[in-house]
Amino acid sequence: MTSTVPSLNRIRVGSAPDSWGVWFPDDPQQVPWQRFLDEVAEAGYEWIELGPHGYLPSDSARLTEETVRRGLKVSAGTVFTGLHHGPAVWEKTWAHVSDIAALTQAMGAEHLVVIPSFWRDDKTGQVLEDRTLTPAQWRDLTSQTERLGREVCERYGLKIVVHPHADTHIDSEENVSRFLDATDPELVSLCLDTGHYAYCGGDSVKLIETYGERIGYLHLKQVDPEILAEVVTDEVPFGPAVGRGVMCEPPAGVPALEPVLAAAQALDVELFAIVEQDMYPCPPDKPFPIAQRTRRFLRSCGA
User: Fold this and answer.
1) Using omega within 30 degrees of 0 as the cis cutoff, is the peptide bond preceding 287 cis?
2) Per-residue confidence (pLDDT) for residue 3, from 0 to 100
3) Cβ pair 297, 21 in contact under 8 A
4) CA-CA-CA-CA dihedral for 239, 188, 98, 34, to nearest 10
């Protein structure tokens, strides 16, 4: 008797500059963008994200030429926001978002990943503000995110997918549920990052089964449970936690990705599932073999 791997025919797998240790537009510790594009294609991925704005060429004609000749397509751009600060930060936010949204649209992508601002600095660990929002800040966060979703859709034809993230105000099961319950499903979807959600104590399969219609995008990532226990106990900020190796190569960590992918496939919608293994900083030769192994692993899962 032979077991057959289920075909996850609604899951479109890709990777991102993040999996090559790229967190910033320009950093001497990061691999050059040409090497990232060469290696992500050679590792067997068809889809990529833009990563930090300015890392890949921001001229759409040049970027199209560079991606097409490697057989790559863009699934999404990424923006960072602090919308819980209310209307006062709208203009500054929009200036940041509009450039990235325009490039994302020009590259044929349909999604904009929206990451909330950190309450403590991811490099230094400096506490920047209270980790708990007031009711008024929650109202600003949800109303301004809906505004962003409306504007991005009307002006650029893109769908925003908000990314729960460690050391931000949208992190735990409680806060993710509160955010989803307070926002319009027509305007705001979720980018479920399996690693960040596990880092913050959440269950990805349960989230997909409970809020299936709100899941618009996936980031595939795992955490090392032993290192996670240490960083939680020691209250280590996210950046140094990554330096300790809290985000690990699948299938060595949690959550198990097979049931997550199965739950996503059961939603009966097409979803991007972009591999992101936070590794900043890392030796330049480290990411490629990991990317190859991860792609093989995901194929073994049917994706």
Assistant:
1) no
2) 54
3) no
4) 50
Among left, alpha and beta (phi > 0; psi -120 to 50; other), residue 248 is beta
Give the pLDDT band (50/70/90) at residue 111: very high
Rounded to an integer, what distance in angstroms lies between the CA atom of residue 196 and that of residue 188?
Answer: 19
CA distance 14 to 109: 13
Cα atoms in the Cβ-side hemisphere of radius 13 Å centred on 247: 30
Could you read off the pLDDT of 45-93 as tens digits, one per residue? 999 999 999 999 999 999 999 999 999 999 999 999 999 999 999 999 9
Give the count of beta carbons closer than 10 Å to the beta carbon of residue 51.
Answer: 23
Q: What predicted TM-score, i.e. pTM, was given to this entire model?
A: 0.96
| The two structure tokens encoding residue 143 | 């109303």
Residue 98, Ramachandran bin (φ over 0: left; ψ between -120 and 50: alpha; else beta): alpha
Contacts (Cβ under 8 Å, ≥6 apart) of 179: 141, 142, 162, 164, 170
Q: What is the rounded distance in angstroms from the CA atom of residue 161 to the CA atom of residue 112?
A: 6
CA-to-CA distance for 294 and 104, rounded, in angstroms? Answer: 26
Quick one: which of 69, 166, 181, 152 has its CA closest to 115? Answer: 166
Residue 182 three-state SS: coil
Show the tokens assigned to 206: 């349960």
CA distances (Å), origin 193, targets 59, 197, 204: 28, 6, 8
pLDDT in tens, 158-173: 999 999 999 999 999 9
Q: Where do we find the tokens 């500059």? A: 17
Name the 3-class secondary structure at 187: coil
> pLDDT grade, residue 124 (50/70/90)?
confident
